[in-house]
Amino acid sequence: MTHVELSLTDAAAVLRPHPVAGPWPGLDRWASVAADALEPCLVLDSHTAVVAVSPPAAALTGIADPVAAVGRGLREVIGPLLDFGATPAPLPEHEVERIPPLLALSSGMMARGLLRVGDRAGGRPVTLDAVSAPLTDGARVVGSLTFLARI
Predict the structure, then answer these.
(1) CA 103 to CA 111: how far, in whole Å?
(2) Bridge partners for 49 per DSSP
(3) Residue 2 pLDDT greater than 80, yes or no
(4) Which of 68, 37, 33, 69 is nearest to 50 (CA)?
């Protein structure tokens, strides 16, 4: 039996492509693809700095300016990471390294999991499903590509 998946994106919700700044050896191509993507995704370098954010990912995570996010740390860009307790508290530091974008960097393997991100405007936290893949230049991990979906 044939299996087909289809994803439709509202063309009105897609922002115009934005430039990608900075040289990231091994990541330039991925940065360009992610910056123009119609799906919510982001690329990190091996130091967890944001290399590119797609317009839908910026809208999903509350990033006001995807271009301004480039070069900044992931946590600085997406806001506080929270635990899944009844009363959300900051995610302990030892748990932060296990979120999919960072786990893909450290393990060199695909990672999937949920993230709870605090809303910067003081509203409710947002829960995201994250699927991350390591990006390599052949012998070493140089970054990660993460696709996001709101839960």
Answers:
(1) 6
(2) 73
(3) no
(4) 69
Per DSSP, helices labelled H in the chain are: 28-35, 55-61, 66-69, 74-78, 93-96, 100-107
Rounded to the nearest 5°, which phi and psi values hold at 149? -145, 135
Q: How many CA atoms lie within 13 A of 58 on its CB side?
A: 25
Condensed to tens digits (0 to 9), the pLDDT of residues 31-58 reads 999 999 999 999 999 999 999 999 999 9
The two three-digit tokens of residue 101, written as one number: 């974008």
- Is the Cα dihedral 24, 80, 17, 70 positive or negative? negative
121 pLDDT exceeds 70?
no
